[in-house]
């Protein structure tokens, strides 16, 4: 077996991949991963089955082991095959994004950036950030999901960076974060219910009997609600609806005078401004995990991501949301 020279810095396995692995191999791997059939993969690529069989044999020779086993369900990946499929998907995604970025630059715009943002980040932060990026010629693809889901997408090279709660990134390799601003929780309801509750002292047993719409208990706010009631030795309420959608929460609160929710204060402010939702005038001594910018450690930083980082920090530093937190 050959050994990499000290000057190359590459192992013999890396050299084998660089010298022998072709784009058609990656394309075949991604087709096999999705279709689980050599015949269907060959049809999708517009090649003959013998040509696909030959390519697969070449790939398995490069990886020095079988990548698939035959079963009644079709071709099933071996552990080595699972690794090859995951890497091939990421490489093909990178090539696709590379192509999109090239088209962006050719059309006269600066770059394209794919950003993941949790739903509980206010438009009062996002709108000026996006406006400034567009003014600088940077196109933005915005993804909305929970932090854990967005981190999965970032690790899979589907997005470039995330605005979310950094607690979900603890223990993940090759990621770092910077705190943008703090958030405190607010109890929100239909204005009639909010006034009725505000006239009483905090009564957790009474609140447990009210219908709730909440994020999943696996999210910071859902977990916080469970802990709030548990500390008061009251069984936590079971949410009638579990959702992270700000629009759905606000819409259901407007239409139901017996429904409660807890959201960050800045999101509660946005709901109040839109009308039909009010905050309950109770003081909370609780803080949510802060909103952070989460990025991958890169050998060469993306210029568009650097500009995004600078702009989002400037907007947060000057925003009334941060001053109120």
Automatic annotation (TrEMBL):
Q: Which UniProt keyword terms apply here?
A: DNA-binding, Transcription, Transcription regulation
Query: InterPro entries under this entry?
Result: HTH-type_LysR_regulators, LysR_HTH_N, LysR_subst-bd, WH-like_DNA-bd_sf, WH_DNA-bd_sf
Say which domain of life the source belongs to.
Bacteria
The GO terms this record gives for MF are: DNA binding; DNA-binding transcription factor activity
SUPFAM superfamilies assigned? Periplasmic binding protein-like II, Winged helix' DNA-binding domain
Q: Domain HTH lysR-type spans what residues? A: 21-78
What Gene Ontology terms describe where this protein resides (cellular component)? Answer: cytosol
As for family, the record states: Belongs to the LysR transcriptional regulatory family.
Tell me the protein's name. LysR family transcriptional regulator
